[in-house]
Give the backbone structure.
Amino acid sequence: MHCETSLKNDPVMKKTYLPVSEGGIRSWLKNFATKIGNHASKYAVTPSEVTDIQNAAIDYNALLNYADALGSFKQMFTQVKLEMRDGLPAGGTSSILAPMGTPPVMLSQPGFLGRVLAIANRIKGSVQYTVSDGEDLGLEGAVIHIDLSTVKPAITHISAFADKVVLRWKKKRMQGAVVSRSLDGIVWTEVDKPSHSPWEDTSPNQSAAGEWRYYRLRYLKNDKPVGLFSDTVMVLVSIG
C-alpha cells in the first residue's frame, strides 16, 4: 500500500490535560478516579468528593459502553431490515439480531464532569501543586506527534437510510479524509473529501434492486492523502 513517504511526522502543539474525545475523557476520568485518593489529603479533597469522582468514572464508562451497544444494535437492525426487504447477495448468510442490552443505573448526579474538573483545577491552582503530582493525576498536557506514514482513520459507524448512507469517523487532528467507494470491494472510486464527520452519500443505486456498497477512508493532510486506508465497511443500500 502506497504512503506519502515525503511527509515527516507532524508535531502538534501542547494540548490541555482534558482529552477531546469521549474515549479519551473516559480514560482520563478512570486514571483521575483511581489516583485521587493518594492525593486527597494534600489537596484537601473531601471523602464525598473522592466518591463522586469515582462514581463519575464508573458512570461514564457504563454510558459509553451502552452507547456502543445501541449503535451496534441499530446498525444490525438496519442490516436485518434491508436483508429481509431486499434479500441477500449470492452466497450470503442472514444477519442475527442480538439483544439490545439494559441501560446502566447511574451512581452520580448530572453534571459530574464539571464537578470533577473544578476539583482538578483546584489542585492545579494549589500552592502545593507539583508537576509530578499533575503527571500522576493526568493534569499535565502533552505534545502529540502524529506519524503521517501510519496514521489510519477509524470508521466508527455506518447507517443506511432510504435516502442516504451516513458514515461517522474519527477526524483526530487531521485536515479531513478521502472517501472511496466500491460495489465489489476490488475496484474503488474516490467520491469525496469531507472535512468533518459525519459524511453522507446520497447517490442513488445503479439499479432498482438493493446493492452492497463498500467504503474506506484515508486521511488528508495539507491537501494530500497520508497514512493507511481505514478498515473497509460494507452496507446494503437501496436509494432512489
